[in-house]
Amino acid sequence: MSGVARRRVGWISAAALLLLVAVAASLAIGSRQISLTEVYDALLHGGTSDNAQVVRSLRVPRTVIGVMVGAALAVAGTVLQGITRNPIAEPGILGISQGASLGVVCAIAFFGVHTLTGYVWFAFAGAAAAAVCVYAVASGGRGGASPVKLALAGAAMNAFIASVVSAIVTTNARALDEFRFWDVGSLSGRDATIAGQTWPFLALGLLLVLAMARGLDALALGDDVARGLGRNVALLRLAGTAGATVLTGVAVAAAGPIAFTGLAVPHIARALVGTAHRWLLPMAALLGPVMLLLSDVIGRVVFPPSEVPVSVMTALAGVPFLIALVRRKAVAA
Amino acid sequence: MSALDHDVSRPAVRAAGYTVVRAGRGSFLVHRRAAVAAVALAAVLAVAVVASLCVGESFVAPTEVVRVLLGQPSPDELVVGTLRLPRLVTGLLVGAAFGVAGALIQTVARNPLASPDVIGVTHGAGAATVAAMTFGVTSYTALPYVSVGGGLAAAALVYLFAWRKGLSASRFVLIGIGISVALGSLSRLFLTKGDYLVAQQAKVWLTGSLNGRGYEQAAPLATALLLLVVPLLWAAQARRGVSLDDDTATALGIRLDRVRLGLSAIGVVLASVATGAAGPVDFVALLAPQIARRLARTEQPPLVCSALTGALVVVVADLLARRLFSPIELPVGVFTALVGAPYLMWLLIRTRSRSGGTA
C-alpha cells in the first residue's frame, strides 16, 4: 500500500473510532449521567430501571437520528460543492433546506399539522419542490446547468423562499411561535418514528451519491475534461442534485435546518483524505455524525438544565475547527 | 480547477466594449453597455420613485409629486414631502449601499454567492441587535449603533482570522461563513430564549424594515456614502486587478492583498451602516450585483449599476410591502427577494452560456 493510501485508511479508521466514541458519549452523557456498562446492559438485556428506559426510549432514537442527519448533511454538502465547483455551496445556500422550511411553515399555518412526525412529509415535499425549481431554472437557457448558474439559481431560490417564509411568519404570530422552535434545528424530542420514516430515503440518497463518486472526480476537472473522459456531465449534475436533495430532505425533515455541518465537514474531510470522492464521501459520512453528536452532547451539558440546540452548538463548536483548518491549508474546492 | 480560478484565464479589461472618456488632462475607460444600462436603470428608478411617492393611504397625482420634488409649493407637501419622502430616501440609500457592498465583496471573493451576509457583517449586526432586544433595548435610536458596532466587530474578527501573510479570497470567504454561521446561531438562540413578542419584533428587524425610518436613519448613511466617494473612485479602478491571479498581479506591481483588504473594507462599512439604518434587508447585496452584471454584461459586478439596481429593488419592494396587505405594513426585506429573485432567475434562464462566467 502506498503512503497516501495508508494515510487515508488511517484517517478513515480514526474517524470511525471517533464516531464510536461519539455514539457512546451521546448514549451516556446528558442531564442524567449513565455509566457505559449500564448503557450496554440496557441495550442488550433490556431491563426496566429508569436509566434503561431513558437509554432505550430517549437516547437511542436521538443518537440514531443524529448519525443519520450528520451523515446526510455532510454527504449532501460534499456533493453540492462538487457539482457546483463552489467551496461555499451547501444545502442551506442552495435553497433546498429553505424549501423544507417552507413546507413546514405551510404545515403549521395552513394545514393544522403540529407534530414533528407530521412535519416530515411536508419538509420532504418542500425540499423536493425547491430542488426541482432550482434545477429547472439552472438548466434553462443555452449551456445547460453550468456550475455558476446552478449556484446562482440556488441562491436566488433560497432568497425567494426565505421571503415567502418571512411573509407567512411575520403576518401569523402563532405560526412564528411554533415555527421558531422547529427552525432552530435540534435533535431533542425526536423519537424512533422519525427515524423509521426517513431511513429508506437516507439509504437511497447515499447509494445514489456513492455510485457517482468517480463521476464527481471527473467533474472537478471541469466540464470539458469530464466530457473528454467519457462522462455524461448533464446526467451527473442531475443525479448529484437529486442525491443531495434526498439527503438534505432527510436531514431537515428529521432535525430542522442545521447549518454549517454540510459546509464545514466536506472541507475538514478534504483536508484529511484529499479530493478523491471515493475517499472523501465515506470520510464525510463518518465525520458528519461525529460533529453533530459531539455538539449535541456538549449542548446537553453546557447550560443545565436547559439544552442548547444542536444547530447552535455545531456552529459554535465547529467554527474554531474550520478556522484552524482553513488557516493551515490551502483550500481546494 | 475550481470556480474560483475560473476567470483567471480571461483578461480583466477588454478593450472592445470600452470607450475612453477624456476630461481635461485625465481620461478613464467607460464600459459602453454598462453606461447604457446605468442610464436605463436610472430612468426606471426615477419612475419608481415618483410612483412610490404617489401611492399610499391617499393617492397623490404624479404632477403634484414632481412639484414637491422640485421645491414648488403644493397642497400635498405634507403627505409627500414630510411623510413619504424621508422613508423613500432611506430606502434609496440603503438599497444603493447594499448593492455596492455586495458588488465589492463578490469581486473580492470572486464568488457570486458572496455577500455581506457571507462575511459576517449582517449576522454580526443581527446578533448584537437581537441580544440587545432580548435584554430590553428597544429604542430605534440606540439599536442602529448597536447594529453597526456588531457588524464592524464581526468583520474585524473575520479579517483577524483570515489574514495570514495576506488575504486569500477563498480563506476570506470560508472564515467569513464560519463566523457568520456562529453569529447567526447565536441570534437564533436568543430568539428562542425571549418571549414571542420580542421574537416577533426581532424577526421583523432581522428581515429588514423601513417602517418608521426617516432622515434620522438616512443622515448617517448619507454621510457615510459621501465620505466613501473618494475610496469608491479608487475601488472602481483598483478592482480590475482582483481578477488577476496572484503571480500576474505581483508581476504588474499590484499588491493584491491590500486591494482585497481595501475593497472589502469599503463593502463592510457600507453594509454595516445600511444594516444599522434598516436592518439586514435580505438578499439585496446578493442579488443586485448579479442582476446588474447581467444587464451590463461585464466580467465583474459594475458598481454604479449595482447601486442603482439595489436602490430600485428596495424602492419597489417597499412599495409592495406598504400597499399589498394594507393596512398591515410588512417589512421590506420580505419583498426584496420576491422582487429581485424571480428577475435574476429569469435572467439566468435566458442568459447565453458565455456570459454565465464567474463573479
Automatic annotation (TrEMBL), chain A:
<keyword id="KW-0813">Transport</keyword>
<feature type="transmembrane region" description="Helical">
    <location>
        <begin position="119"/>
        <end position="138"/>
    </location>
</feature>
<keyword id="KW-0812">Transmembrane</keyword>
<feature type="transmembrane region" description="Helical">
    <location>
        <begin position="92"/>
        <end position="113"/>
    </location>
</feature>
<keyword id="KW-0472">Membrane</keyword>
<feature type="transmembrane region" description="Helical">
    <location>
        <begin position="234"/>
        <end position="259"/>
    </location>
</feature>
<feature type="transmembrane region" description="Helical">
    <location>
        <begin position="310"/>
        <end position="327"/>
    </location>
</feature>
<dbReference type="GO" id="GO:0005886">
    <property type="term" value="C:plasma membrane"/>
</dbReference>
<comment type="similarity">
    <text>Belongs to the binding-protein-dependent transport system permease family. FecCD subfamily.</text>
</comment>
<dbReference type="GO" id="GO:0033214">
    <property type="term" value="P:siderophore-iron import into cell"/>
</dbReference>
<feature type="transmembrane region" description="Helical">
    <location>
        <begin position="150"/>
        <end position="173"/>
    </location>
</feature>
<dbReference type="Pfam" id="PF01032">
    <property type="entry name" value="FecCD"/>
</dbReference>
<dbReference type="InterPro" id="IPR000522">
    <property type="entry name" value="ABC_transptr_permease_BtuC"/>
</dbReference>
<dbReference type="GO" id="GO:0022857">
    <property type="term" value="F:transmembrane transporter activity"/>
</dbReference>
<feature type="transmembrane region" description="Helical">
    <location>
        <begin position="63"/>
        <end position="80"/>
    </location>
</feature>
<feature type="transmembrane region" description="Helical">
    <location>
        <begin position="193"/>
        <end position="213"/>
    </location>
</feature>
<protein>
    <submittedName>
        <fullName>Iron ABC transporter</fullName>
    </submittedName>
</protein>
<feature type="transmembrane region" description="Helical">
    <location>
        <begin position="279"/>
        <end position="298"/>
    </location>
</feature>
<keyword id="KW-1003">Cell membrane</keyword>
<keyword id="KW-1133">Transmembrane helix</keyword>
<dbReference type="InterPro" id="IPR037294">
    <property type="entry name" value="ABC_BtuC-like"/>
</dbReference>
UniProtKB/TrEMBL annotation, chain B:
<dbReference type="GO" id="GO:0033214">
    <property type="term" value="P:siderophore-iron import into cell"/>
</dbReference>
<dbReference type="Pfam" id="PF01032">
    <property type="entry name" value="FecCD"/>
</dbReference>
<comment type="similarity">
    <text>Belongs to the binding-protein-dependent transport system permease family. FecCD subfamily.</text>
</comment>
<feature type="transmembrane region" description="Helical">
    <location>
        <begin position="261"/>
        <end position="281"/>
    </location>
</feature>
<feature type="transmembrane region" description="Helical">
    <location>
        <begin position="218"/>
        <end position="236"/>
    </location>
</feature>
<dbReference type="InterPro" id="IPR000522">
    <property type="entry name" value="ABC_transptr_permease_BtuC"/>
</dbReference>
<feature type="transmembrane region" description="Helical">
    <location>
        <begin position="35"/>
        <end position="60"/>
    </location>
</feature>
<dbReference type="GO" id="GO:0005886">
    <property type="term" value="C:plasma membrane"/>
</dbReference>
<keyword id="KW-0472">Membrane</keyword>
<keyword id="KW-1133">Transmembrane helix</keyword>
<protein>
    <submittedName>
        <fullName>Iron ABC transporter</fullName>
    </submittedName>
</protein>
<keyword id="KW-1003">Cell membrane</keyword>
<dbReference type="GO" id="GO:0022857">
    <property type="term" value="F:transmembrane transporter activity"/>
</dbReference>
<keyword id="KW-0812">Transmembrane</keyword>
<dbReference type="InterPro" id="IPR037294">
    <property type="entry name" value="ABC_BtuC-like"/>
</dbReference>
<keyword id="KW-0813">Transport</keyword>
<feature type="transmembrane region" description="Helical">
    <location>
        <begin position="172"/>
        <end position="191"/>
    </location>
</feature>
<feature type="transmembrane region" description="Helical">
    <location>
        <begin position="142"/>
        <end position="160"/>
    </location>
</feature>
<feature type="transmembrane region" description="Helical">
    <location>
        <begin position="118"/>
        <end position="136"/>
    </location>
</feature>
<feature type="transmembrane region" description="Helical">
    <location>
        <begin position="328"/>
        <end position="349"/>
    </location>
</feature>
<feature type="transmembrane region" description="Helical">
    <location>
        <begin position="88"/>
        <end position="106"/>
    </location>
</feature>
